[in-house]
Structures are given as structure tokens and as C-alpha cells.
Design goal:
alpha+beta, 2 domains
């Protein structure tokens, strides 16, 4: 065998040994297959938030034989000061640990040691440790609100569209609230899963005519620093056009689509508006 053939054979043997090596299959919040000593970037998390790391209990032994419940528990070690974790339950699959940050966590990138344990080394796997990296930052979600300038009738709800894009790895809930509007309005709590985006309908109304300026705020339920506010202007007039235009916005518990007479009234209000202007 020439030198090239020997070199190729060594590469093949090395690749086979690596493929048969014991591994940890991370499944969330991101996915990756890691061998002992390797690392993975999980994503962004805000001060005061919690996040989960899940991993499969399945792995292979040193000879490449698959072991269905090879790992019996997953733990987080060497946490930064003030952080705490809850290890996975014994023998659950997938394994899942919860890690919580203090609200005083300083911005920056931190590393955490994840250890997968084979209890009493029953499957002859020993333990495996990998490094997980997380970026602590308050910039873990984006919000948009529309419309921000509302023309409405009296006691007629107008639906605001609130879009929340959770760019972090926490599944902690968000509160949607109004501040500065002198009328009864909902306080809504929603769960926006990590790395996902959704739209929500939030109704507002007033019971007296006037021009109102207020703020719509989306905030984390677990961290006071994770907060976004948007100025909204609402002009409420007791006019035919505004009353029927507000009807066109729809009432959540009684959509316009189920009330044909209201559709006709809305159409007539638009005709009235065009003629008057």
C-alpha cells in the first residue's frame, strides 16, 4: 500500500471511530449532535427569564451500538452567579432542564456546562459534558402595533393588531396592557413561544367623546426590563360615520360577518363620508 492509501485508510478509521463515539443529541431550543467537550450556541435570553434545554436520551456506546435510554439525566453545571437550574427527571426521554436567570443578570455571552449522566454507568457510557453558550440581552423580542391613530365611535371597540416576534429562547408569557385611557379595557396575557412570531387582536374603546392619547405596552411577566410601549391616539366622536366605521372593526364576541344589517350600515356610512367630503 502506498503512502496515499495509508493516509486514506487512517482518515476512514478516524471517521468511523468519530461516528461511533458517544454523543448528546440536543433538541431544543436549537438542535445539534455534540460529542464530549464540544459546544453549541443556544441563543438569546433576557434578564429574569427562564429557558429550557432538551436532549434525547438515545446515544451510542464506544462500539457504535445504539442505546435507547443511554442517558438517564441531564444537568446544568458551572452556572454563573445568581443563576439556578432544575435537572431533568430520571429516565425521561427527551430529558429537559430549566435554567433561570436573575433579573440583575448583566448583558454578555455566558457558558454553561451540560452533563448527561448514565446512572451507575449501567450502559458503560460514563458521563458526557458539553458547553452551551447563551447571550444575555434585553433585545429578545420585537413588537409592532397598528393602527396607532384611531377614529372611533362611542362605546364601539376598535381592534388593534399586535404582532410579537420572540427572537429569544424563553417561552415566558407577555402581558398586553393599556395605560392612560379612562375606560375599561382588557389586560391580556399571551404566550409567545421562543423563536416564533404571532399576531393578536386587542380591542380598545371609550365611553365619552374626545381625543385620547395613551400607551399600549407589551411586557414580559418575569422581567421588568423587557418592555415595549407604543403611543396611540384615539378620537371618539358621536357621528354616524364613526359609529358605523367602528362597527366595521368588529366586536370579538359578535363579528360583523354574522350581522348582515350592520354590513349595510357600514357601507352607507362610507357613502355618507364620501359625499360629505
Amino acid at each position: 500500500m502506498n503512502l496515499y492509501g495509508i493516509f486514506a485508510a487512517l482518515i476512514a478509521v478516524s471517521a468511523m471511530a468519530f461516528a461511533n463515539a458517544t454523543y448528546l443529541n440536543i433538541q431544543g431550543p436549537v438542535s445539534g449532535v455534540l460529542h464530549n467537550g464540544e459546544g453549541i450556541y443556544l441563543g438569546k435570553v433576557g434578564p429574569g427569564e427562564s429557558f429550557y434545554v432538551s436532549a434525547s436520551a438515545t446515544t451510542t456506546n464506544s462500539t457504535g451500538y445504539s442505546v435507547n435510554i443511554g442517558w438517564d439525566q441531564l444537568k446544568a453545571l458551572n452556572l454563573p452567579k445568581g443563576w439556578y437550574s432544575q435537572p431533568s427527571l430520571l429516565y425521561e426521554n427527551p430529558m429537559k432542564i430549566k435554567i433561570t436567570l436573575p433579573s440583575t443578570a448583566v448583558n454578555g455571552t455566558y457558558n454553561i456546562t451540560l452533563e448527561a449522566v448514565n446512572v451507575q454507568n449501567y450502559s458503560r457510557l460514563g458521563n458526557i459534558t458539553v458547553t452551551a453558550y447563551v447571550n444575555v440581552t434585553p433585545n429578545v423580542f420585537n413588537v409592532s402595533v397598528s393602527p396607532t391613530d384611531i377614529q372611533s365611535g362611542i362605546d364601539q371597540p376598535t381592534n388593534l393588531k399586535v404582532v410579537i416576534n420572540n427572537t429569544g429562547i424563553s417561552d415566558d408569557p407577555f402581558n398586553i396592557n393599556l395605560y392612560g385611557l379612562p375606560a375599561w379595557n382588557l389586560s391580556d396575557q399571551v404566550v409567545q413561544l421562543h423563536l416564533s412570531r404571532s399576531s393578536y387582536v386587542y380591542p380598545v374603546y371609550v365611553n365619552e367623546p374626545g381625543r385620547y392619547e395613551f400607551n399600549l405596552t407589551v411586557s414580559s411577566t418575569t422581567s421588568p426590563v423587557l418592555r415595549r410601549s407604543f403611543p396611540i391616539t384615539l378620537t371618539a366622536d358621536a357621528t354616524l360615520y364613526n359609529d358605523y366605521r367602528a362597527v366595521g372593526q368588529g366586536v370579538i364576541i359578535s363579528p360583523v360577518i354574522f350581522d348582515p344589517p350592520y354590513e349595510l350600515m357600514l357601507f352607507l356610512s362610507y357613502v355618507y363620508h364620501l359625499v360629505a367630503h
